[in-house]
Amino acid sequence: MLDAAPRGPIAQIDRLRVEFETKDGRVVGVEDVSFDINAGETVCVVGESGSGKSVSSLSLMRLIEYGGGDIAGGRMLFDRKTGEELDLTTADQSLMRTIRGNEIGMIFQEPMTALNPTFTVGKQLTEGLRVHRGLSRKQAEARALELLREVRIPEPERRLQQYPHELSGGMRQRVVIAMAMACKPRLLIADEPTTALDVTIQAEILALMDRLKRETGTAVMFITHDMAVVAQMADRVVVMFRGKKVEEGPVEQIFEAPQHPYTQALLAAVPKLGEMTGKDYPEPMKLFGRTDQKIEPIPGRNEPLLTVKNLTTRFPVRGGFFRRHIANVHAVEDVSFTLNKGQTLSLVGESGCGKSSAGRSLLRLVEPTSGTIDLDGTDVMALSPRGLRDARREMQMIFQDPFASLNPQMQLADQVAEPIHNYRTARGSEVMDRVAGLFDRVELPRSFMRRFPHELSGGQRQRIAIARALALNPKLIVADEAVSALDVSVQAQVLNLMMELQAELELSYVFISHDMAVVERVSHNVGVMYLGRIVEIGPRRAVFEDPQHAYTQALMKAVPIADPRRRKTEKDLNFKPIPSPIHPVDYQAAPSDYAEVSPGHFVLTTDSGY
Amino acid sequence: QRASDGEVRIIYWQAPSIMNPFLSGGTKDIEAASMVIEPLARYDETGTLVPWLVEEIPTVDNGGVSEDMTQITWNITPGITWSDGTPFTSEDVRFTYEYCTDPKGGCAQLTKFETVKSVETPDEHTVVVTFNEPTPNPYGPFVGGESPILQAAQFAECLGAAASTCTEANFNPIGTGPFVVTEFRPNDVISLKANENFRDPNKPAFATATLKGGGDAAAAGTAVMETGEFDYAWNLQLAPDVIARMEEGGQGEAVAGFGPLMERIMLNNTNPDPSLGPDERSVIRPHPFLQEPAVYKAMSMAIDRPLLVEIGYGQAGRVTCSWVPAPEPYAIDVEGCDTQDIEGAKALLDEAGIVDTDGDGVREHEGTPLSIVYQTSTNAVRQDFQALIKDWWEQIGMEVELRNIDSSVFFGGDPGSPDTFQKFYADVEMYANTYNGTDPQVYFGNALCDKAPRPETQWQGENISRFCSEEYDALHEELTQTADLEERYRIGRELNRMVYEQGGMIPLVHRGRLSAKSNTLGGVVLNVWDSELWNVADWYREE
Amino acid sequence: MLTYATRRLILSIPTLLFISFVIFMLLQLAPGDPMAQVPLTVPPEVKQKMREALGLGQPPLVQYWKWLVQILWIEPQVLIDWLTRESWLLGWLPDTNLYDGQLRVISWQTRSPVMDIIIQRIPQTLTVVGIAYIVGILIALPIGIYSAYRQYSVFDQAGTFVTMIGFSVPPFFTGPLLIVIFSVQLGWFPSIYDTTHVVTDWASFKVQLQQMIMPVMVLALQITAQLSRYMRASMLDNLNQDYVRTARAKGLSEIVTVMVHVLRNSMIPVVTVIALGVPAIFGGAIITEQVFKVNGIGQLLITALFANDLPMVMTVTFFFAVLIVLFNLIADILYGVLDPRIRYD
Amino acid sequence: MTEPVVASPATDEVAIEALRDREPSRPPRSQWRDVWDQLRKHKGAMFGAGFLLFITLAVLIGPFIWTADPQQIDIRNKDMRPIYTALWDSGAKVSWAKPLGSDQLGRDQLAQMIAGGRASMAVGWAAMILSLVIGTAIGVIAGYFKRLDGPLMRMTDLFLSLPILPLLLVAVTLFRQPLRAGFGPEGGMFILIVTVIAVTSWMPTARIVRGDILAIKEREFVLAARSIGTTSRRIISRHLLPNVLSPIMVSAALGLATAIITESALSFLGVGFPSDFPTWGKMLADAVTRMEQFPERVLLPGIAISLTVLSVNYLGDGLRDALDPRIRGR
Ligand SMILES: Nc1ncnc2c1ncn2[C@@H]1O[C@H](COP(=O)(O)OP(=O)(O)OP(=O)(O)O)[C@@H](O)[C@H]1O
Ligand SMILES: Nc1ncnc2c1ncn2[C@@H]1O[C@H](COP(=O)(O)OP(=O)(O)OP(=O)(O)O)[C@@H](O)[C@H]1O
Ligand SMILES: [Mg+2]
Ligand SMILES: [Mg+2]
Ligand code: NI
């Protein structure tokens, strides 16, 4: 197969221009974009959010019309299976239907929403096969099963009967991939297939796609904004910026000798695992194009601010006829740590390991089951609702999703002012002065004060969230995946902002993330969580340079490195599925015992389930 | 020829709910039942008694009524059978008496039998009714649609408290009438077929009959006169112009007849002031101004009765100022009844010193403004009347607030409700009333002092206006002692006049019954003294 | 799922008891008297006797308790007897004889068991109101789907306009209007519904159609108006979802995409709206029934109300309450069945 | 394969710009200006607002321009036709003194329309607003406080099964006298009717609002608000309520329609306002029997009701779009 595949270009995009009809007139989505995709080759399209990556790919499928777009110019030549060459821009929709899903497959960004929630996986998988291949139901099902095996979903027979919501995110994304591959398309478009996923699952999916490409010789157009993923996957890279292609070249060339300043800036903003090796304290990143940056380590102080002992949080599971409490989700299990003033403690781990629950428990946004939380002398667990409300002045939270964590109906200034009003720390015109000060602090123009969240970019929104958290001058900020949803360049800015604030205001952070590279950059101490427990905790340097626990080691291996010469292969990965954190009510969890391997570096000796 | 004319379709916009008049008393039920069960004698369209299941009407002259007026003897026509073929006997008549007088039965026609001492059956065909006291009008029991004869065999198990468990018998009574029920759907439709054993072998002309219920008067009129879907529609209380328009439909016509039904405005002789307690309101006399002759006379003068008739009833209404407008000899003729005299009314009030002293356009009587609440039941014609009369009264310097109350509340006797017509928590109220048969003696009793509703009587009592005059009471006593018809007429007219002139009520319109019949339906004789369907056996299809 | 349903069912019993109690007390407080229709010529003492014969003299709580026993204990016995004796469903079971003549819920107006009348009325209501509901759904769904698919098109605008008009014109206006046009002027359809009509052959079926057409249209207009709005909104929500794009990317035709993928999801909220409307079917459409003389449950309730027939009103409203609670439950369960993401257990 | 774009010195700025904040293209404006601009673009909403304004003005200042007394009986001039009938029927009984004709008692139809509109609009709006307030409050509380959810939803069931007619009769019996003392016969009845309509119509709103609140409550910004110490009351009023505005708007449009129609049905059954107090619904119901001779008597109030409902619906649609900053932005 591989050898039989022709090596010429399968798709040629030539001076593509796409416009959108909006209320404010016509808006250009992409402008004058040209590139080719060859058979058996992976072309990565990179660029930040809104740069026109999705628009280009949807245009190729001619799906852009359904989203209100309009191909205003250019050509898109596509080699059909039969050998003829077709200009997709002029093909009519009925012809496109025979191409979509058949000769061009597409994988979408959000595995959570890309599948129809009301149909079984089997039905959705077989649909395309029956339309394009004219298979009977039986045949289609047999083929679907085969596909699921190919994408290595465990228990494929059972999956066919299941509904999307019964699968985990990783499995869902694999179903989407199987769907796209179903008819053996000549071209596969993958639009950020791993952005929403965990490192570990991401590693698996990437390996899977790579393998499928190699096995079937499909051409792949891979869209992402994650440079590490690019390094892992790409043969060739197209860099897009504001609807235009700014650079194109083989992957090594792009990484090693970026030509366009935007590419350079992009690469500079990517935190690379291992960059901090040898350094004790975190320091801000060097940003491209900024000359006034002072890059100094942030030592913090060695006085404890927050001491957590044996924190346990369980969610009741109700069931049976009388909705009795029959089991518990052990979300956080016997967690203890100390956080010093002006320092950062990071919690890392896979999805569902209890990071968010731990963070929320600290603020008692969810009620912990037991344990002690001591914040600068205040026993948080013992506070009355009133006292708790007062105590929250000292600790604030930033949430993962900057879209979801701001009220879409309120002006930004009001949202930032809300905590000030709540605690009456300022009155009258003073409030707006403070809000303006906060806007300055997070480097947002004051003209944004009267705007609504949807008018901002993700990074700007997250800065609003930070401003809101800062409004009360807290000592502690719990940042729950605060930068995960952001573009690399923006992420770098926000990270630097957070670190600058820490240096200036002596803030302490509990930094929750699954991105090892980011964690390496910002933390003083790191705790690795697995199934509700901290399996390893210690100074960042110790944990990253000398991981002791088996889980930590596996996690480190899964992280892709933004360097095309250090690609990971499938055999590096060995992940087991996480066991269920649900236990019956009478289950006695063993206490967490730790062994100190070096000063301050502890490893769990209790069985963690890994 | 029996059963030769197919189906007759009758519509009653109030749906019959039971076929046993002793358990309901509602007009619709009585009339529906009259197609199946029959009394010994009934009134014809002129109000004359005609024998029905008996040979002749017993009178003193023919010896059927005893000289002392305490006994009446009915002779049943031999050969009458029930629809199930069994013979109709005097035993059934006596059973009917027992059925209705059972204390636990809740019989609606109890008044008919209250004065009866005993009912005896010397033989199969003779019924002797004995009264407690001399009864000048002994034609109460077993006469008219309200007290038909039930079959003893069928109802034997249904006495007293068991009455309401006899659903089958109540819905499908065995009768002597021209039809038998084939299916009874309560409040919906009754299907009937000709009675095989009916005494006249040639009747009824129709093989089947359908009596549909529901909807409203307008729809019923449309169905008969405009679309021709039905043959007969009962009691169309509609404005004359609406009736006239329906008749243009060309499928049928309206027929009218007059009984003693009279629309009136009752004047409250007690004080309905809301600031009085619930037990004093409409109990304490007198009314602040309504008993002032100048006031009620002026109010009556201000009313244009011919216009009311024209607007509200057309051919089914007549101008009257007589409380008992029929039979004719009891009615009085009041001068000026048929002319409106607003100026005269004003003059009358001015003369009595009831003038507007504070310039708000409302006259005052000894400091109390002539401000009244005028209530009635909800009904389109009554609301038009209210509007008109309010207008006139305001012209003579009164202030009028209108109130209309749902008729199920207004006419329901619930002592807990402030809105019943008996409680009369208003200054004036409008409704219509009538009486059964042709003798108004009991009806005249409705203006006796002790018949006034008050808390002690649970607000029951027929003297709604709380009219009270010793003179009247005495004269009424005299009426009950008098047997001579001419003398009774004279006393009746006197009573009539007293109530009118002493401020008991303001009579408005003598109302007739207006029903509609299809052009192809023959034999209809509208009877207001008894069931409208009294002669349904004679109905036939015209070609 | 099953446990969820049973649990909700059992929990709804106290709710229903409470509802019935509140309704009972409300009716007790309401003014009105079963004797209102008895002519004024019947003197008050007699009316008082009639009232006592109906059991009106007893204290309210005793009356309530009696009614409760009758409706929850005696009536079910009658029902079971009937089921095992005559119904085609369970008629094969040995005849039971649970009912032995205790007092059933007796209507004051007709002196017959309330349940019998209700059962007698259900077919009328179901044929007219039920069919109207089905017709309404059948018209509303396509309109809603198409309006959403072509949002802001002429069809959509016109649809919105017509449905809003349909919603805002009361049936006591449209009903007589139709009668004037089709019965009086054109003479096509009867203005009065014949509840005794039995369909035996083609001709009688035609008659049945003719008499049903007007009430069904009047009712369907209102149902269509509401449902098509819901359908449109729900379709609009779903048309922009990612999975629609996925379906298109698979090369499915527009018909399949919209009518299979989008429709299924959009139906989830609409189906529950439809289910919640079912109690109203049994409740009948009071005004429409009255206008066309379809003497169904609605007419039964209104006549009983005006006649102050307390046991009838009480039983009919209780019957509605049961239906409302039941269909609330059914709507919830349907939601769970249709939407695999929601599972109640 | 195309040549890589060669970096030029000028593109340095491009890169820096890439990392700089992009400002929204339009200058900020006041929120209400924005809402208004958006609303103005919505044709339906503008029609709705225009008609509502017209009707409101007509019923408010109409009586000063057309001073005829709606209750004035003028029996000589009864059954007049509207002036426009003269266009096709020269023999029709018309007069400029009664531009829309008169009814069977000679009451002026134009004056009645104005007075009736006043009553209908007042009842409609008041009942709708009251029912929205009740429905929203119950919905929000049930959705927000888990513990109250069960009881409140059962209460909703209870109200759904309450028959409106006996309820109204009870209310009339119990409260008419005190209300009449306090607010006069018409005012008292107005309060009663509005309350009863509201009390029997808030349930769908409550259900919808509860559902939406349950969903929104799980959104992160609510948690965020809690973490900055916002009290429950403020969370509800500032964060939850604005976000359920659009279903409330829809309920409002439908609610106004149902309120006007319910009022007319009540008048129809004779438990509403005093008989000489016109409302559109009652005019319509009264005229149905004379529909053939005098079609205008049903059509005028009928059209007035329909147009009002229609405009409220369109205005609701437009407002919903305009009030939502996400849609407004586009
Ligand atoms: N339906 C639409 N209507 C109007 N403008 C649109 C539409 N879809 C995309 N755009 C515009 O087109 C531009 C390119 O968007 P596109 O979705 O391709 O970005 P992207 O690179 O895929 O970003 P992301 O990484 O966030 O997915 C953006 O400026 C966006 O505002
Ligand atoms: N409110 C809740 N009720 C019941 N279970 C919960 C609740 N919140 C979280 N859980 C469970 O607790 C466990 C830990 O969840 P948590 O959100 O803390 O994980 P996480 O590490 O933050 O994951 P992610 O990276 O996906 O955010 C999961 O199994 C989750 O299903
Ligand atoms: Mg994209
Ligand atoms: Mg989390
Ligand atoms: Ni091969």
Automatic annotation (TrEMBL), chain A:
It is an enzyme of class 7 (translocase). One of its GO terms (cellular component) is plasma membrane. One of its GO terms (molecular function) is ATP binding. It comes from the Bacteria. Gene3D superfamilies: P-loop containing nucleotide triphosphate hydrolases. InterPro entries: AAA+_ATPase, ABC_transp_ATP-bind, ABC_transporter-like_ATP-bd, ABC_transporter-like_CS, Oligopep_ABC_C, P-loop_NTPase. The keyword Membrane applies. Residues 13-267, 306-556 form the ABC transporter domain. Its main location: membrane. It catalyses: glutathione(out) + ATP + H2O = glutathione(in) + ADP + phosphate + H(+). GO terms for biological process: peptide transport; transmembrane transport. Its EC number is 7.4.2.10. Pfam families: ABC_tran, oligo_HPY. It is found in: Cell inner membrane. The complex is composed of two ATP-binding proteins (GsiA), two transmembrane proteins (GsiC and GsiD) and a solute-binding protein (GsiB). Part of the ABC transporter complex GsiABCD involved in glutathione import. Responsible for energy coupling to the transport system. Belongs to the ABC transporter superfamily. Glutathione importer (TC 3.A.1.5.11) family. This is Glutathione import ATP-binding protein GsiA. It comes from Citreimonas salinaria.
UniProtKB/TrEMBL annotation, chain C:
Pfam families: BPD_transp_1, BPD_transp_1_N. The chain crosses the membrane at residues 9-30, 130-149, 161-189, 209-227, 268-292, 312-338. It comes from the Bacteria. It is a multi-pass membrane protein. CDD domains: TM_PBP2. The keyword Transmembrane applies. GO terms for biological process: transmembrane transport. Its main location: membrane. The keyword Cell membrane applies. InterPro entries: BPD_transp_1_N, MetI-like, MetI-like_sf. It is found in: Cell membrane. This is Peptide/nickel transport system permease protein. PROSITE patterns: ABC_TM1 (PS50928). Residues 122-331 form the ABC transmembrane type-1 domain. One of its GO terms (cellular component) is plasma membrane.
From TrEMBL, chain D:
One of its GO terms (cellular component) is plasma membrane. The keyword Membrane applies. One of its GO terms (biological process) is transmembrane transport. InterPro entries: BP-dependent_transpt_permease, MetI-like, MetI-like_sf, OppC_N. The chain crosses the membrane at residues 45-66, 122-145, 157-175, 187-209, 240-261, 298-316. Pfam families: BPD_transp_1 (PF00528), OppC_N (PF12911). Its main location: membrane. It comes from the Bacteria. It is a multi-pass membrane protein. Residues 117-316 form the ABC transmembrane type-1 domain. It is found in: Cell membrane. The keyword Zinc does not apply. Keywords: Cell membrane, Membrane, Transmembrane, Transmembrane helix, Transport. PANTHER family: ABC TRANSPORTER, OLIGOPEPTIDE TRANSPORT SYSTEM PERMEASE PROTEIN APPC. Belongs to the binding-protein-dependent transport system permease family. This is Peptide/nickel transport system permease protein. It comes from Citreimonas salinaria. The lineage of its organism: Bacteria, Pseudomonadati, Pseudomonadota, Alphaproteobacteria, Rhodobacterales.
